[in-house]
Write a structure and sequence with these properties.
By secondary structure, the chain is of the alpha+beta class. The chain contains 9 helices and 11 strands. It has 2 domains: 152 residues, no CATH class; 116 residues. The strands form 4 sheets. Strands 1, 2, 3, 6 and 7 form a 5-stranded antiparallel beta sheet that branches. A two-stranded antiparallel sheet has the order 4-5.
Amino acid sequence: MQSAELIHTCDVLLPVAVECLGRTFETQIGGVDAQLLMPSLDRPTLEDSPVLGPPHFEVLVGDVDWTTFFDDGLDVTTKSPWGSMHSWNVRDPTIGSPDVQRLGVRFAAEVMGLEDAYERVVEHLEPWWESLREWIEVLTAADVTTQNLGRTFAPETAWTRPVDGGPRRTIRLHGGTYFVPADKERIPFAGLARAASLAGVVEPDLEWRLIREARQRRWQGQYRASVLDAGSAVELALTKLIVGQLGNVAAPAQSALLDKYRTLGGRGELFRRLGGELPEGFGPGLVQPRNAATHEGARLSLQQAEEAEHVATTIVERSTPLP
């Protein structure tokens, strides 16, 4: 069976774990079975600086000169067009912080012709990529939203003059190129494999999309918005749990009961009255800061956003298990 390979340039850096490098992940793009190919790690000895190399291609092998293959002018501080490695260890090859810039994709044609499969893959490649990013952030704590690829920071210049006169002088910091900090959460092998298997096939439930949005707001320093998203996720989750507890109760009676307990705290109270258990921090960790943000316009802290997200995730995991 004939196969084809293409290269996808990511619009964000993928902060993967070292264990993901050189691996192949099964996925589906536009209904076409495909494989996600991660860059390999080129490090002949532990004394050598680790460099990201091409994935384990089957077609793009042989006479390919990767130093001149790409002409998109992407400016990143890396020795490789595939990405870069930070915080590596001279004694342990399993330690490091790879930021992946390009991915390989392999697909084959079994039912349809290769040209038809190619058209289908190209047409759905961007939606698949967005779906992959969404599932990565739902399934793991990795941030693949706020880290812009190759983002350079050009410093502002300032001028000063001694208080006693004298010549003016310039103050200027050196610019550079952004990479994902090493202490950020890395995408583990299992998380990437699961995300790849789900990408383009199924969408996360709304509760999980709201949890993802809460994380994104927290990463961006928007703690009030993060808590509000967490609260919205829990409202949906509690409603689903309560409906499940009510069982055979007639729909009009269910609606009347939900209308009576329509606030977030009210839904929590109803859930408890029906025999459900809530996390210890439900009131102080979620309901109180959410109400303060909603009704008083309160400014919330990182710690409050993290606690609200933790409580929300615990409840959503009960109502809506991940596939």
